[in-house]
Amino acid sequence: MKENEAIEKPYVVKSHDIHIDADYAKWIADVKHRYRSAQVKAAVRVNAEKLLFNWELGRDLVHKKAEERWGSGVVEQISLDLKREFPNTEGFSTRNLLYMRQWYLFYCQSSNRILHQAGAKLKGHLNDNCQKLHKAGGEFPITFSMVPWKHHIEIITKCKTIEEALFYIRETIELGLSRSALINCIKADLYRHKGKIINNFSDLLPPPSSKLAQEVLKENYDFGFATVEHEIYDEAELEEALTKNITNLLLEMGNGFAYLGRQKEFVAGDHTRRIDILFYHIRLRCYIVCELKARPFQPEYVGKLNFYVNAIDELMKAEDDNPTIGLLVCSDLNKTEVQWSFKGLSTPMGVATYNNIRIRDVLPSQEQLKERVKELQKEMLEKKRLLNKTRIKK
To answer: Which pTM does this prediction carry?
Structure first.
């Protein structure tokens, strides 16, 4: 009885002075981990069920030849019927229903063999619920359930082939890309550039790191977010333009890059040296020294970058870090020259290009325009005065 009264008596919840040992800390950490895992599984399951519905509705619109059978306005009518029945549910707009049909048609324009291959490649990422969903949904690819619906829309409206679309689906799943990050990847044409950077990774890095480094670094970087003042610019101006937009720079570099600073200074002997941009890559677990060149590749650039990579290995690299990687980004390059420059090097290095730097429009400021107007007014008054003087003499 007293115990029940104690439970019912009002009280303020607070931390108590209890004995917390290692077993308690380990157990409560495990409880938190299990709950987070349950949250993720629930979210994946809900997303999977919604996507399965979208896929099957798109399939119905195609297989039933809905517009031929019931008229050109049938999609709008379906939208109205579903909104009326489920007024608090989003996703039943006419446009969204048309995307469902487009989604199904995009992947089913070819044989289902490609879709099954896509599922097999990423099977390790799937949980039991998704595999059961695959059995229930027939041809619905299980990997699709791991990508949000709006990501799917971006992919099918911007990709030209199934292979390209599946590439971005894999990137989204493996890297956890947000929608904006996915759009940037597609805009930068990551499908055609990823893994093609000229490098010596296979000679100097172990197989897992070599493969990952080749995937992480691009063949070409789109610097369209950066603006320089003059058509002929140097490395300092290029670096300034890029680091002014650090968020866009990191999005363009790709997932996993951490920005550590520009003009990173170190002293060797009596000389002070500065690295253009220094990154750390979380997945590669290594520093990445980035040197920018506003001109085409020259062999001597490799020697300088090699020096900087060795300096970071000596001064900053920790025991559990992987070897530092050098990244040289030039305005243009000759593949043979780059490959010859790599011979004899003992540091991992890649050479890429960049494009789409914008030149600022050189327009006069408001103050300059005002001054120019005043000068023109003075000139006109002077001409008028001289004209009147001439007339008086006549």
So the answer is: 0.57
